[in-house]
Structure formats: C-alpha cells, structure tokens
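Hi R.,

Quick one: here's the L-glutamate gamma-semialdehyde dehydrogenase sequence you asked about.
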Amino acid sequence: MLRSIRSCRSVWAARASRLRLPAVAVGTAHFVRSASQLAHVKVPSSLANEPVKEFSFNHQKDWDLLRASITKFTDNGPLDIPLVIGGKRILDRPTFTQVNPAKHSQQLALHSAIAASKEAKAKWASMPWTDRAAVFLKAADLISTKYRYDMLAATMLGQGKNVYQAEIDSVAELADFFRYNVKYAEELYQEQPLESAPGVWNRAEYRPLEGFVYAVTPFNFTAIAGNLVGAPALMGNTVVWKPSATAVLSNYFLLSILEEAGLPAGVINFITGDPVQITDVVVNDPDFASLHFTGSTDVFKSLYGTIASNLAKDVYRDYPRVVGETGGKNFHLIHPSASVFHAALSTLRGAFEYQGQKCSATSRVYVAESVWPEFEAALTLAMDGITIGDTTDPSNLHDFMGPVIHEASYDKLAGVIEQAEKDPELTILK
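And here's the predicted structure, written out as tokens:
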C-alpha cells in the first residue's frame, strides 16, 4: 500500500497592476501529483464542437452582453498591455501603438521587451500530462462561458472583425482547438509498440523538445494564435510568444484566461515590440528548439533561411523543428452544372468575409463561359447588398464588412484598385 508520494508543486502568482481589462481572476494554482495518477487517467470523453451563437435579431440577450463587453473595454482605454515574463507583468518599457481599425484616434499603448522562456521548463515538462490537459480544458470552458463576450469584444475592437467572424474564431474555434488537442494528445501518448521480445518490455516515451518554442502568431485569427502557443505547451514545452502588433488585446486577454485556468508562471511568455529585434535574439539562442509561425510568405522564408544558416554554423543544441503556414491563392471553379446563384454567394463570402484578410480567402474565380453572364449578374447583385461600417459600434453591430487591419493595408489595396482602373484589359465589377 502506498502511504505517501512525492508532491510536485508549481506555484503561479500573477500581478495585474495598472491593467484595466475585464477582470480575470488571479491567484495561486497548485499542481500536486496524486497516487491516482500512477494509473492511466482518461480525459473527459464527451467531446463536441463548441456551438456557434447565431446573434440573430431574436437573441437580444446576446447582443446586450456583447455591447456591455465592448463598452467595458472602450470606457477604460487606453489600455496598458504588459509583457508577461515568468508570470510577472512588466510595464516599464517603450510603447508603440495599436489602434481600433475603425477608430483612427483610439490608441492601445503597448509596452515591449524580450526575455527568455527556460526556467519553467523542468517543472512543466515533469507535470503529469493530465494536469497540463486540465489547464486547457478549463481555459476552453472559460472562453465559451464566463469570458465569451469579452473575447468577442477584444477580437472585434483590436482586429476589426464583425460579431459573426469573431464568434466562429475567438470562441468556437479556439475552444475546439484546446479541447481536441487534449483528445489527440491522449491518443498520441497511448501509441506504444505492439510487441516485445520475451523478457523485454518496449515502450515509447514522448518528451518535449530540448529547448523552447518561438510562436509568431497572426492578426487575423485569435484561435490560430491560441493554437500555436497552446499545442506545444500542452505537450510539455515552454513558449516565447510574439503576437501580431494588431492583435495584442485579444491575445493578452487569452493569456490571462490561461493563467486563471492554472497555467504556471513562465510556461508562456508574452513579448511585444519590434519583431525584427525580437526574432534576431530568439532564433540565435542556442536553446531555440522550434518555430511555430503563421504569417506572410516572405517573412517565413527569411526566418527559415536564418535557421538553416544557424544550423550550418552549429549554433543550436538540437535541430529546430519548423512549422509554418503562409498565404494562399485560393480559387473557385464554377462548373456548368453548378447552382450558379449559390456559387456566386459562396464566392462573395469567400472573398469578402473579414475584408478578405484570411489565408483561405477566395482570390481567383474560374467560371465556365456558358454560365458567366448568370454568374456575373448574381455576383454583382450580391455585392450591392454588402454593408460596410464600424463593426464595434454598439448601435450597429450588423455590418457585413469592417475596416482593414491598418492604414498600410488600406493604402496597398487602394493602390491596387487605382492600378486596375487604369488597365484597359481589366473590367472591375461594381
């Protein structure tokens, strides 16, 4: 009979001074290895996709709760978003500016710095994986219940999404990532050698990487940001997280939720600032073990080249793993047998939802000549019904399109349109 077992305790205490975000509980999380964890503990088996709220005109309560969350953010601005390094909030650094894309004068002050993410590694990696899983399952529940409308408001205000795009991203997909990652991790850990020779017991031991993970996350999906840092952390890694400068509000709020769910200090370190300077330090560190990246093709190629060059120079202790997702040129092919009206609506949604700022956005359409007149008419008619406005205005939250992410993006798009209008070989549908 077991009378005692060595406890493994990791203490988290976060200080949120000067921060005026919607309140997220802070305190101390204790992780204790119990005797029951010597046996196989299964994670909850009842797993389903997070239901997406409709936000129809018949659901007034949802609208009221969302308006209250938006107002809670805007009435307390500007907000100081700190670095989070080893669980400590650091605000005494130079600032740069994030704006609500729809309100050019509203500023979110951001304090930036860079630090390493190594001290928490041993304790986090040695923690029973079910305890790590519990953090992300709890976070998924907090996102889908207690903080649902705050997550929507943070994503809408910082990234210019309408409520429908924010709902499927920052709540439904993000919660699904955290829950299903736990399911897939459990399946992975259970994969063991099928047979052993007589007198031999073969087993596979799954360990985190030898070093830290660098996660570079995009502006256009809060869920992807959460997944790029959450997946490696779940498997016992520690992470240096550089969020997009235009998504720090929702990303920092997400980190606060993870901390409330029990994430120990130092497991995920949140750093903002000049991306070139941050990256230069991180990818030249000998303990750099992996890149998790979503962003532009050019930036990814540059990072890949730097890592390859460092490998040739024997900079790293191990071979870094590189995981990258970049832009695409997705297309629709409209066959003569297609339902042309539905094809036109799907093309419009694919091209213009979230102002086309998705790697999955439709950027090319190939239409059979026999159905082109019908398709053109249907697409033009549908385009006439698009409404554009401030998607965070509490008095009008129903616009289909909002602002593009920043002024540079607007200028680029305006320049492309101007060039197209001057090209005699192009016809612009209006």
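The radius of gyration is 24 Å.

Cheers,
M.
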